[in-house]
Design goal:
Elements (H helix, E strand, L loop, with lengths): L3 E8 L3 H12 L3 E6 L11 E4 L5 E4 L11 H12 L3 E3 L4 E5 L4 E6 L7 E3 L5 H7 L4 E5 L3 E7 L4 E6 L4 E10 L8 H6 L11 H4 L7 E2 L3 E6 L10 E5 L4 E6 L11 E7 L1 H11 L6 H15 L11 E5 L6 E2 L10 E3 L4 E3 L2 H4 L3 H17 L5
Parallel strand pairs: 1-2, 1-12, 2-9, 6-15, 12-21
Antiparallel strand pairs: 3-4, 5-8, 6-7, 10-11, 11-12, 13-19, 14-17, 14-18, 15-16, 16-17, 20-21
Helix pairs in contact: 1-3, 1-9
The chain binds flavin-adenine dinucleotide (FAD).
Length: about 375
């Protein structure tokens, strides 16, 4: 007896997968979303840490904010603003030049509006994953996506070998689901064997990535020597960006929390020494100290963080190529397989949203395919 259900499996709850899942559900397609992490958001996650004194500390360790220009995405943004999931981050931003040790370009308006999720960057994905018609399963890493010719459907298997059922269609919203990099990190073959979609395989091989390490810091007192709440580093080999997470709307201000991002070069050099596997605790501590040392050039005047932690696992933080700028996603109509994510359009939240919308449209434009 067939156990096929009229469902689409979406793999990944980052913004591309979450937007795709909710768009499908709003158009009458029932969706099961699988996410290997404990919660939604992917690179728009919020991280919860506990300080030594038991204090809860929350950090947006991936995307610090996003900007939007596309009209379709602006419509979604307004909807999220009305629901209180998103707010504009109105602060001073600028840059710090490590040659002159000075802050430059301080302005109130910036280049465009900067938006953040409220109360955390993950709020949008959280809400989309809870929409009617989306069944979200967290803590389930998809280990295999098998095409069953006899049933004309996909079989979804967990990393632990558990059968999660058959689906009429699949959306893969992370390049690691099909890239050879998956094997370098886990030792296992990637969940999706691209030979099942030979027309897509050529275009999807070896998408280059830029890595990034992030360090989370918490201070008891505000860092009053820093005149901005977010800034890029100029002429630094170590840091590319720093922001005061607790200055965003809707965040607790009981401590001042900062997140620093390394340059891609710094992260790449480190990965060349340690490999893609999780670095040792000693390496993580050393890197956190190096990033903090560079941050101190901004004139912290002896303020020491009471909490400091490096986040590893950002080996593929930013795709370094956009592989489907026109189509915005990949689609195999015969097997009802969509592949989406920021790597298709542009390495940012807006690009990921556009790709998720495009993937959903492929199923919706051909309803008979389900
Ligand atoms: C440090 C950093 C800074 C950034 N700064 C900015 C910025 O300033 N502005 C901006 O717009 N963007 C920024 N970005 C980029 C932005 O975060 C991403 O472009 C966007 O969030 C990507 O969304 P996505 O859905 O394509 O992928 P992801 O968010 O990576 O989602 C993919 C999801 O799939 C899940 N997954 C993968 N494999 C499996 C599996 N086998 N089974 C189940 N689940 C699986 C992953 O756990 C993940 O949750 C930044 C990113 C980083 C890391």
């Amino acid at each position: 007896m067939s156990n096929i259900v009229t469902k689409v499996a979406v793999v990944g709850s980052g913004i591309s997968g979450a937007v795709c899942a909710s768009t499908l559900a709003r158009n009458g397609v029932s969706v099961t979303l699988f996410e290997s992490a404990r919660g939604p958001g992917g690179r728009m996650s919020q991280r919860r840490e506990i300080a030594e004194d038991g204090k809860e500390l929350l950090f947006d360790h991936g995307a610090p904010f996003f900007s939007i220009s596309n009209t379709d995405v602006l419509k979604l943004l307004h909807e999220w603003e009305l629901k209180g999931l998103v707010a504009e981050w109105k602060e001073n931003f600028g840059s710090f030049d490590c040659l002159s040790n000075k802050f430059l370009d301080i302005d109130q308006e910036g280049l465009g509006k900067r938006y953040v999720g409220v109360p955390g960057m993950n709020s949008i994905c959280k809400s989309l994953c809870n929409e009617t018609g989306v069944e979200s399963k967290f803590g389930i890493g998809v280990g295999r996506l098998d095409w069953l010719d006899s049933e004309n459907s996909w079989l979804v298997m967990g990393m632990d070998g558990q059968n999660h059922g058959s689906f009429k269609g699949v959306v893969a919203s992370d390049k690691n689901i099909f890239s050879t990099r998956f094997k370098d990190v886990t030792g296992c073959p990637p969940p999706l064997d691209l030979s099942l979609a030979p027309e897509l395989a050529m275009k999807l091989q070896d998408i280059p990535v830029n890595p990034c390490f992030a360090v989370m810091l918490a201070f008891t007192e505000p860092l009053s020597s820093i005149p901005v709440k977010g800034f890029t580093f100029k002429n630094s080999e170590v840091l590319s960006w720093g922001h005061c997470d607790s200055s965003k709307p809707g965040r607790s201000t009981t401590s001042e929390r900062w997140v620093l991002h390394s340059t891609a070069k710094y992260a790449r050099d480190l990965i060349a020494q340690t490999g893609l596997q999780k670095p040792s605790t000693a390496t993580l501590t050393k890197v956190a100290e190096e990033l903090l040392e560079e941050f101190e050039r901004t004139g912290l005047h002896g303020s020491q963080p009471f909490f400091k932690k490096l986040i590893d696992g950002q080996g593929s933080a930013f795709p370094a190529a956009s592989v489907a700028e026109e189509e915005k996603c990949f689609w195999d109509g015969k097997k009802r397989l969509a592949i989406c994510g920021d790597f298709c359009v542009s390495p940012n939240v807006e690009g990921a949203i556009l790709s998720g919308l495009a993937a959903a449209a492929k199923f919706i434009e051909a309803p008979s395919c389900l």
